[in-house]
């Protein structure tokens, strides 16, 4: 029974968080500053959630840095997302295999 209550509370919280902007802003936002601020919020939130996950996922800061460097270079070169993800994972794995022998 408590599981049903937890799910209902979370559904209510999720609904209210999504409903508040629609209730608060009934007219189109005309401020260029506020509109540009709202445009970048999803990217900033996604970055804030992703970057810590990247550096704490491997257990070694060095392997995470190698994988991130490979991902940034390949993304800069406009490679497809699957290529970037697989190459970054492979680079982190390879770095994890090589780094113990270097130390």
Please describe what this structure looks like:
This protein has 4 helices and no strands. It has 103 residues and is mostly helical. The protein has a domain of 71 residues. Helix 2 packs across helix 3.
Question: Helix and strand layout, with pairings?
Answer:
Layout: H1 2-24, H2 32-57, H3 61-76, H4 81-102
Strand content: under 5%
What class, by secondary structure content?
mainly alpha
Work out the number of β strands.
0
Shape: flat
Mean pLDDT value: 90
Summarize the structure.
With 103 residues, the chain is mainly α. The chain contains 4 helices and no strands.
Brief descriptors of the model:
4 helices; 103 residues; 84% helix; mainly alpha
